[in-house]
Design brief:
Length: 313
């Protein structure tokens, strides 16, 4: 396409459809879901699309009461609604590393799905509300389990006129975990009793999420985290890094499951080709859809879950 920015052109076309009252019914349901339930994956609404029923989860008991903590853990919709076990794993990691952190008591969608589907004004309203909630915590570092949320906070909010503050550091959870491993806050060596972690070696492969890779350009940090864990061998898929295939999840699966499901099946097959028993990723949405596609043939974990498991947290 030469000098043309295809995502921007597609987003502009979607905005035109919204303004003309021609937005797809699935996109309208997604907007309604975010408005009423705070997540694109509200079970009652998405049953109409044939999507799976989900269980939503907010902050863990007591975490929202840790006022003026320097770190804010922002779970994101996919972790809250589809993969709450990732939140549990990250909370364990932060607690073991003695990190003072908090979570929003009533966390809702960051607004990126609205922005991406052409609902620009609704996305700005969502961003204003989330921005105020983040500011109220007085946090210095925002850590998100979702790379799409990181993209929203880092790049999309400024485009919508919402400023989270120039001093706020915005990190993906894998980046924060890597800092803990390299700074000594998290110990990947032998335990205090001298017994090494994860004595049995096992093989994993890594899926590069679209948001984490093509948008945030974070290819190496997750691999560095995996490489620092004892007893773990990383085998790359044929299509990796900037050539990695999409998982077929997020809005593709939600709005057009007949398109997303075959894509997820193909990607799960590519993971199985490596001979790995575990597929690791850094996007809860990817992990949910790849887990469904892989079935019992492949365990799918977030990097936080892998770290918590290997280090026996």
């Amino acid at each position: 396409m030469g000098a043309y920015d295809m995502p921007t052109l597609v987003r502009a076309a979607r905005e035109d459809l919204v303004h003309s009252g021609l937005a797809p019914s699935g996109a309208m349901l997604m907007r309604e879901s975010i408005r009423e339930g705070g997540t694109p994956w509200d079970s009652q609404l998405l049953r109409k699309l044939g999507a799976g029923v989900v269980n939503s989860r907010g902050a863990s008991p007591g975490l929202a009461d840790r006022s003026q903590s320097p770190v804010l853990l922002f779970a994101g919709c996919a972790a809250r609604s589809l993969r709450p076990s990732i939140i549990d794993a990250m909370v364990k990691i932060l607690d073991v590393a003695h990190v003072r952190f908090t979570m929003l008591e009533n966390e809702v969608c960051c607004g990126l799905p609205l922005y991406d589907e052409g609902f620009r004004e609704e996305a700005r309203e969502q961003a204003v509300g989330i921005g105020a909630s983040i500011a109220s915590t007085e946090c210095k570092v925002l850590v998100s389990l979702c790379p799409t949320c990181v993209w929203a906070f880092r790049d999309v909010y400024p485009d919508l006129g919402v400023n989270l503050g120039g001093e706020l550091k915005i990190l993906h959870s894998s980046e924060f975990i890597f800092r803990l491993l390299t700074d000594g806050g998290l110990n990947a060596g032998p335990r205090a009793d001298g017994v090494p972690h994860a004595s049995d070696k096992f093989v994993v492969t890594y899926h590069d999420p679209c948001s984490m890779g093509r948008i945030l350009h974070k290819y190496e940090t997750p691999r560095e985290v995996i490489g620092s864990l004892p007893g773990v061998e990383l085998r790359e898929m044929r299509w990796a890094r900037d050539h990695a295939h999409c998982c077929g999840g997020a809005s593709v699966h939600t709005l057009y499951p007949e398109v997303g499901e075959p894509i997820a099946t193909t990607r799960a097959g590519e993971a199985l080709e490596t001979g790995a028993g575990v597929l690791v990723s850094t996007c809860p949405s990817c992990e949910h859809h790849l887990s469904e596609a892989a079935g019992d043939g492949l365990e799918v974990l977030d990097v936080a879950e892998l770290v918590a498991s290997i280090l026996e947290l």
